Amino acid sequence: MKPIVPTLSALLVVTGAVDADDDAIGYPSVAGALQALQSDSTAQFESQQGWTIVASRDGDKPVQWFFTPEGHAAHPAVIKRTVLEQDGTGFIDLAALCHAAQGECDALLDDFRQSSEEVARSLLAQQVTLDIGIALNDHERVRITRLLTEEGKAAEIRMDEQLKLVIVPTLDDARGVLLWTAIYEFDGGEYILLSEPRLATPREGTARIEVSSGSGNTFGFSITPLLAAR
After folding, report:
1. Predicted model pTM
2. Secondary structure class of 101 (helix, strand, coil)
3. Residue 113 φ/ψ, nearest 5 degrees
4. Are strands 163-171 and 6-10 parallel, antiparallel or unpaired?
5. How many Å apart are CA 165 and CA 141, to the nearest integer?
6. How far apart, in whole angstroms, are the C-alpha atoms of residue 97 and residue 109?
7. 27-36, 75-84, 109-118, 182-191: lowest mean pLDDT where?
8. Which of 10-14, 31-35, 135-139 is predicted with the least confidence, judged by mean pLDDT?
9. In terms of DSSP bridges, do strands 139-150 and 191-193 run parallel, antiparallel, or are they unpaired?
10. 62-85, pLDDT tens digit by residue?
11. In this predicted model, what pLDDT tens digit does every residue of 16-31 receive, in sequence order?
12. H or E element at residue 38
């Protein structure tokens, strides 16, 4: 077997638009989207600071959903983040459906775009440092220490022609870390989503994920947030 070489890269954030119909997120209403996800046995739910966060998939594309809490200025609204790849480059597509006033909806999407100078400056203090271990068939093959990531942005790790791991960290006010993960396996021509996207809250400091592939391989991941600075 050829050596595994991890490759690190950041995913670009592509801004989307606030829509009043189902073109943006695939559902005619925020409530309809939430109900459909609740009926999906593969979707995984977490709650963070009143937000409902869901990991799911749209066909072969991993998706992360953010539903506003009651009392939020833009409620009811949902942000949909979809991980895409084009010509070997990964990026995040952003879409929103919002039933509040247009100004509040625009402000919500701007927060997720992270495009304003104020938000861009604040990102300097919204960083998460990760230690990541990747095992193949119970044998550790890759260990990455002190990988610096940013809240709401995706870090990508590739084991050449074998595996791709995408991680998006989200922080709460208590500096707790919620990790959204998507795992792909290389099938000889492209990377194919290997399992349902997952939300992981590190227990006792480390999140552990194990998935098996159709090729018979078992991949194990340990992800330890070392620092969540604001």
Report:
1. 0.67
2. coil
3. -65, -30
4. unpaired
5. 14
6. 10
7. 109-118
8. 10-14
9. unpaired
10. 888 999 999 999 999 999 988 876
11. 444 444 466 889 899 9
12. helix 30-38
Q: Region 169-187: what's the mean pLDDT?
A: 78
**Does residue 228 register a pLDDT over 50?**
yes
Cα–Cα nearest to 95, from 107, 77, 106, 81:
81
Q: 17 CB contacts (<8 Å, ≥6 apart)?
A: 24, 95, 96, 109
Residue for token digits 């998006």?
A: 168
Residue type, 227: L
Residue 161 has pLDDT above 50, yes or no: yes
Three-state DSSP string of 107-149: HHHHHHHCCCHHHHHHHHHCEEEEEEEEEECCEEEEEEEEEEE
Residue 14 CA to residue 206 CA, distance in Å, equals 30
Tell me the C-alpha to C-alpha distance, in Å, between residue 218 and each of 32, 135, 194. Answer: 36, 8, 11
Of 156, 168, 173, 160, give the one whose Cα is nearest residue 85: 156
Please check whether residue 135 is in contact with residue 212, taking contact to mean a CB–CB distance below 8 angstroms. no
In the structure encoding, which two tokens stand for residue 2, read together? 């050829």
Cβ neighbours for 120, distance < 8 A, ≥ 6 positions apart = 114
Contacting residues for 184 by C-beta, under 8 A, at least 6 apart: 163, 164, 165, 166, 191, 192, 193, 194
